[in-house]
Amino acid sequence: MSAAMRSRRFGLIAAIAVVSMALTGCISTPPVAESGTSVPSALQRFYGQGVSWSKCESAGLTCATVTAPIDWAKPASGTVKLALIRHVTTSSKRVGSLLVNPGGPGGSGYEMVRDGVKLYFDDDLRASFDVVGWDPRGVGRSDPIKCLTDAQNDDFLYGLPAAPEGSDAWLASRVPIEKAYAAACAKNTGPLLGHLDAESNARDMDLIRALLGDRKLDYLGFSYGTFFGAHYAKLFPKNVGRLVLDGPVDPAVSEPQDFVTQMAGFETSYRAFLADCLTGSCPFSGTVDDALAQSKALFDRVGTAGLQSSDGRYLTLSSLGTALSYPLYSQSSWPALKGMISDLQRGSVDRAISFADGYNGRDDDGHYSEGNAVYTSALCLDGVFSTDLAGTRATMDAIAAAAPTNGALYTYSDWAHFDNASQNWAYPSVLKAGAIPAKGAAPIMVVGTTSDPATPYTGAVSLAKQLDSGFLVTRNGEGHTAYGSGNACIDKTVDSYLITGSVPSSDPLC
Description:
Layout: E1 24-29, H1 32-35, H2 44-47, E2 51-55, E3 61-69, E4 79-87, E5 96-101, H3 109-120, H4 123-128, E6 129-135, H5 150-158, H6 168-189, H7 198-211, E7 217-222, H8 224-235, E8 240-246, H9 255-277, H10 288-303, H11 317-325, H12 334-345, H13 350-360, H14 371-382, H15 389-402, H16 407-423, E9 444-451, H17 457-466, E10 470-478, H18 488-500
Parallel strand pairs: 5-6, 5-7, 7-8, 8-9, 9-10
Antiparallel strand pairs: 1-2, 2-3, 3-4, 4-6
Helix pairs in contact: 6-16, 7-8, 9-15, 10-11, 11-13, 11-16, 14-16, 15-16
C-alpha cells in the first residue's frame, strides 16, 4: 500500500511554539499487570519492562523511552528505542490514554503533543485522556535512520538535473542516483531500515498500549497514521478500543492507482484554489480554465529557467512540484500560495524554495529531519512498485493525464523517486494491497474530507466499508484531515465517540 504525500499539518506548529526544557524527577510505572496482556515468552521482556516517566519540555508533560525489538518475528536480533511523551490529565473524568500520530510516514508524534496538544485537542478531550504521542521507529528521538548528509540532501533535492526533467534521458540518469541513495540508507542505518513497515509500527503500538496499562487501545491517527491504525485493527482486533482514522490511506489500493488518485486530488484542490483566487486580487485572470493554462505556462517556464534562491539552490520542476503541494494541504495556506505564485511571476523563487523546505523537513540552518528518509523507506516496505523504468513511465503518464496542470511536476519529485528507489532498495516489500476487515474489532470511526488532496475522500468511503465495524464520518470541505481544523461538528462527533463510545446513528455530514 502506498502513502499519501507526507502530512505536514502538525509540522508547522514547531515554528510558533516556545519550548523550555525542565527535566526533573522520575515516576516509575510497571503497568503490565494492569493491562492484562498475555504474550509469547520471547516477548515478555518487552511487555514486562518498567517505564520511568520524567517531567519534560513544559508543564503537564512527561516523557519516557521504551524498548521494542527491531524485528518482531525475531525479537532476539536487536532492539530499537521508542520515545514517548504524554500530556497528563488531572481530571476526575479520566477515561484512559489516547495514543496519537500525525501521519507521514515520518511524522513526529512527540512533537505533535509537545507543540500542539492544546492547539489541536480541545479541553474535553484533554480532560478525559492522557494524550500520548511517540516518535515511530526510525523517527526523531526513536533511533532515527540516516540516509544522506545535509549537503547531499541539498544536491539530491535541489540540484540541477542532468537532462530535461520528464525525459527518458532524465529518468535513466536518476537510476544511479537512486541506487546510491538506497545504498547510503542501508549503510548508514543498518537492519532497522528493513523494519519500518506499518505492521512493525502497529506492533509497537500494542506494546505502548500495554506499557501504558490499558487493556484496549484508544487511538487518533491522521493521514498515514491511519494506516498504522488499520493494521493494528487487523493484527489485534480484540485489543481495539476506540479508533479514529482521520484522512485515511486506503489499504486496498495498489501503489500506481493510489498515486494517480492522489495527484488528481491535488489537481482538484489547485482548481478550487484558483476559483477562490479569481474572486479577488489574483496573479491570474479570466476563467478557471484560463488560470490553469496560465499556471502551466508559468510553472514550465520558471521550473526550467535555472533560477536560484538567495542561498544558491535551484528551483527545478521537481522542487516546484513539492512547493506547490505544500500549501494545498490546508485552505488557510491559500493566501501564501497566491504570494508564492506572484513571486514566481517576478522571477523570485525564495518563497517556493522555503515551501519545498517545509515539506522536505529542512530547517533555516540547513539541517534536514529524517522524515524524507523514513517516508521513502516505509513506502518501499509497505507497497509493491514497478520493476523497471517502463513501469515508472507508465504511471508518470497516467498521473499527468489525471492532473494535467501540475501532475507531471508531482511525478518528478514524488512517484519517480519512490518507484526508482524501491527498485533498488536493500530490503524487499513486506505488504501488498488488500482490504482490512478487522473482524471482531469494536466500532472504528473513519473520518473523510470531501476535498482532501492528499488522501482523497474515496479512500475513507472504501475503508469504512472494508472494516466489519467501520462507520464513516464526513467533513464537507477543503484540506487534509478533519479533526482540529475548525469544524465544530467534526470535533464534537469525534470527542463524543472517544470519550463515551457514542457511535452516530448515521453519517453527520459535517
